[in-house]
Amino acid sequence: MIQPPQIDFSVIGALTVLCVWGIALLLIDAFFIAEGQKRVTGYLALAGLAVAALVGLPSWGQSSNTFSGMVQLDGFSQTLIWIFLLAAAITIVISLDYLPRHDIEKGEYYPLVLFATAGMVLLAQSTNLIVMFLAIELVSIPLYILAGFAYPRVTSEEAAMKYLLLGAFASGFFVYGLALIYGQTGTVQLFSVDGSDSIASYLDRATLVAENNVFLFAGSALILVTLGFKVALVPFHNWTPDVYEGSPTPIAAFMSVGTKGAAFAALLRFLVQALPNLQAIWMPILAILAALTMIVGNIGALKQLNVKRMLAYSSVGHAGYITLAVITGTTLGTNAFLFYILAYTLTNLGAFAVLIALEKQGESAWSLEDLSGLWQRQPLLAVAMAIFMLSLAGVPPTMGFVGKFYIFSAAWEGGLVWLAAIGVITSAISAFFYLRIIARMFMYEPTRAEEASLSRALKVGLAVAAVAVLLLGLIPTPIIELVNNSLLVAAR
Amino acid sequence: MTQAVSLEYVLIVAAALFCIGLFGALARRNLISMLMGIELMLNAVNINLVAFWRYLEPSYVTGQVFVLFIIAVAAAEAAVGLAMVIAVYRSRTTLQADEVDSLKG
Amino acid sequence: MNTLGFPILSMLLVLPVLGAIILLLVPRENTTLQRQITLAITLASFVISWVLPITFNYNPGTIDASTPPVMQFVDQFPWIPAWGMSFALSLDGISLWLVLLTTFISFVVALVTDSMVESNKRSFLALLLFFEAMLIGVFTAQDLFLFYLFWELALLPAIFMVGVWGRENRVRAAVRFFLFTFAGSVFMLLGIAGLYILHRQATGVSTFDIAQIVTDIRSGAFELGIVNERILFGAFLAAFLVKVPIWPFHTWLPDTYSYAPTPATIMIAAVMSKMGTYGLIRFNVMLFPDTAAWAAPAIGILAVIGILYGAIAAYAQSDMKRLVAYSSISHMGFIALGIFALNPVALSGAVLQMVNHGVTTAALFLVVAAMVARKGSYQLEAYSGLWKAIPIFSAFSLVFVLASIGLPGLNGFIGEYTLMQGTMSSSFLGWGFVGFAVLGVIFAAAYMLRFFRGAFMGEVEAEGAQLAEISRNELLTFGLLLIPIVVIGLFPNLLFGAMQHSAADITGSFLQAAQAALGQ
């Protein structure tokens, strides 16, 4: 007789709300919301996100787990959950107007965003490889569909196909790695709070001779490859520009921050909580990958004249900076990671929102030319974009700047100064293409006369992002306090 | 417990299957063949998991449960993937990956 | 310590920012009101900043290498307590004069902007006021993080002024300007992070307070170790060398100075470039004395190359604005040389020269701009015989040219003389460097007199006779700029007095090292 494990719903509050509300919303949308009124579904989805954010409040500061320790709620995951919910909320807000403008307003869009968000939430909470796998799939499958949501447009379809093939391919690696680790250690639990079997406790016991641990090493490597795919580390980054360019713009924005953040959270847990004893092995490997990612991403962005592709390459470059924070393995590194993810989420969503504002009915407007003289056409939009570009480049007083400083501090503490120096050089390079956009907007004459006026929803999304990036860059104390209290649960 | 074949052989079969799937996913240019390759990779993993369960920890069912998870997820992936293949075929009347190349740069 | 009892430095900082915000509320068309507000704000800051030297404590205590540097007019508010950051502003005898230079030049620029910027004046004036505030912030910030914030924020108005209102290749110049200085700055950011983390690891205290870190370094509580010290020194140096700029990091300068609108050129050349030399003094020399002594000859060589290169390149220019721009490279080389002589005499000379160069360069760029306004050409060949056509204007120009050359009795002479005297007696540089520097002075005379002879001497052209004589506004600005040129030239101790304590404090450890070497 198998005893079903006790489930503590306070641990999976946000996840439950998102999944249940997502399913309910699918039905509500199908039966009660008329064609052309789909915006209402969006508002309902926003309400669901708000509820999911609120259920985390009572348990803030505590750490507990459920499903036999496979799902963990600690300060780290709670903060990430809030960041993902914020990302999802902004994504929905900027979609409200985007979808009808491109004739793809279908109700299932919003529940799919909720499901993907649920996957991100689960990924941040998972302390077990099989849960991690489920979470990755829960993130990915809705996003495959969303990437192809602008389906009659061939590029959207193609983006979805590429994303699916590579995503499924990467999943194959992940489960193979999982199987090998299971064969070696007899468990796929990353670590355990109560001292039961886990990869971390196996490593504590085992003598670390490579011949005895072939499966564990090979399995870990395969899992790192998969997570590398998801966060777009070089050399697994090739899909990023194509998929971002082809996907509907809000979805590209969502993928660039949400999927990336969640996969980095999983990477951090896997490295820091399951394999801390192997840091001497994985740190140099990942440090080199991080260096390559910074270099390839930022140099790739240099030659892009398509702003959307430029942002895709820049997101590859930023993955390098985040990797730097993750692989230090220190508390400061974890804090820096959380801060940077929040900063990057707000900034990048804002930047994509500006692109949405510039898109006209059914056609794309992503070339550098389209930004010419934006200052004279729409001063506030230009100022918002300038704030986002400065934040991506790491110029004060923006959140991106504080985040970069945080990461450099973590690098000094973690002994990765050489990697931080590469980060410094590449961010100097990256300043070129961010500044090019600013120069286009402020220093050139307009080439486009007609103007799509901004909808209210888009204005709200942009204003929230821009003000937050600026204000929290100037007074980052609340966020620093938040991430300082967002500790990973201690193993054993 | 005496085993008819030792664990190594099962693992080698699984690894071979995984590699065949990998090759299929990478080298074939037909979208359906690529999806089939990916399915092969997942099934190789299933063999692995079952073998580890049977040979190493027959008293726990964990390995088997993992297989069920993977089968379910693979089915979901296949459903979305095949739907997408149909969509691609409708708009381009081809399933050759080389001809699906409007995104570049 | 703040003997005044009210936060005068914060006031100086906030006033122009407030002014910029008020400007943005004024209707775009009402340019008269915009001009009046800008003038009122810059004049008010200038007048208020005079409180500083008047109430400054010229003798704040004995010089002792173990005590922290004495700062005055301290304003301190907590900012990011979690990291030990505070909004801390204060002054010593070095930043005192740079703040005064900033408020003075800003006022002069506010006077001339109206005639030199055609479109969108409101935005330009708002940027100018914001620029002024950020520059004051850079010179007064006593918190590393705050310093970096002002440092980068000062760059933003500068690139917009260049890129939006400049001539011909303005966008390329602005982008290049930004990239060079930003590339240097991010290294400094890495350095600040390193200094913060290493200090925290050594002492357990999270702080960005410069005085605190200096105290711990001097007392031995915070030992960097030779490798870390050199890395950090290099990281700070990168930012400052680009900003000054020292050869070979100067390549952004000629384009930026010459394609920027003249008010922006003046702000960048006269004040912003001093951020770099100020940073060298405040960070490289004060925080890392051992490495500074180790690197002094190398930087001295770069400085000397800059002096000669700038002078030779200036001689070869036919574009007058570029000529003045290249002369800046030469003059800034002198200042860097004086700083890395690492003794109080040369350091005082360098600081005085920072003020002198600010005033003289501003005057020279104004002269060029006034000539261009009359005849529309930047080429030296287009001008001839202005002396006969417009004598008063030419007389002013002659004084400015002579001040730049270093004629005794004017400000440039006393600065360069003190600087070279200090360098001569420096135990780190010595007579070889001075020899080349003297060569630079001779070259300076050559290129400036070539400029003056070409444009002002010779025969009056036919159209030259109709050129307008000096206008009232020009008379006012030229007259204003003439005052410090003459006063500093005649009474240099007015400035030297205040900076003596700081100069001795900063170079104290080098003096001890030199004395110890002598005693052995």
Care to describe what's here?
- The complex is a heterotrimer of chains A (492), B (105) and C (520).
- Chain A contains 19 helices and 2 strands.
- Chain A has helices at residues 13-32, 39-55, 75-101, 109-125, 129-147, 154-185, 199-205, 214-231, 239-246, 249-274, 279-302, 307-328, 331-358, 374-377, 379-393, 399-414, 417-443, 456-474, 477-484; strands at 64-66, 71-73.
- In chain A, strands 1-2 form a two-stranded antiparallel sheet.
- The longest helix of chain A is centred in the middle third of the chain and has 32 residues, at 154-185.
- Chain A is globular.
- Chain A starts with 12 loop residues before the first helix and ends in an 8-residue tail after the last helix.
- The mean pLDDT of chain A is 89.
- Chain B is an all-alpha fold and 105 residues long.
- Chain B has one domain (7-94): Helix Hairpins (Orthogonal Bundle).
- Chain B has helices at residues 7-27, 31-56, 62-92.
- In chain B, helix 2 packs antiparallel against helix 3 (62-92).
- Chain C has 520 residues and is mostly helical.
- Chain C has 20 helices and 2 strands.
- A two-stranded antiparallel ribbon of chain C has the order 1-2.
- The model of chain C has no long low-confidence stretch (mean pLDDT 89).
Name the features.
heterotrimer, B: 105 residues, mainly alpha, Helix Hairpins, 74% helix, C: 520 residues, two-stranded antiparallel ribbon, 20 helices, 2 strands, 75% helix
How are the elements arranged and paired?
The complex is a heterotrimer of chains A (492), B (105) and C (520).
Chain A: H1 13-32, H2 39-55, E1 64-66, E2 71-73, H3 75-101, H4 109-125, H5 129-147, H6 154-185, H7 199-205, H8 214-231, H9 239-246, H10 249-274, H11 279-302, H12 307-328, H13 331-358, H14 374-377, H15 379-393, H16 399-414, H17 417-443, H18 456-474, H19 477-484
Antiparallel strand pairs in A: 1-2
Chain B: H1 7-27, H2 31-56, H3 62-92
Helix pairs in contact in B: 1-2, 2-3
Chain C: H1 8-25, H2 31-49, H3 51-55, E1 72-80, E2 85-91, H4 93-116, H5 121-140, H6 144-165, H7 170-203, H8 210-219, H9 226-243, H10 253-259, H11 262-287, H12 289-316, H13 320-339, H14 344-375, H15 386-389, H16 391-405, H17 411-424, H18 431-456, H19 472-490, H20 493-519
Antiparallel strand pairs in C: 1-2
Helix pairs in contact in C: 1-2, 1-5, 2-4, 2-5, 4-5, 4-11, 4-14, 4-20, 5-6, 5-11, 6-7, 6-11, 7-9, 7-10, 9-11, 10-11, 10-13, 11-12, 11-13, 11-14, 12-13, 12-18, 13-14, 13-17, 13-18, 14-16, 14-17, 14-19, 14-20, 16-18, 16-19, 17-18, 17-19
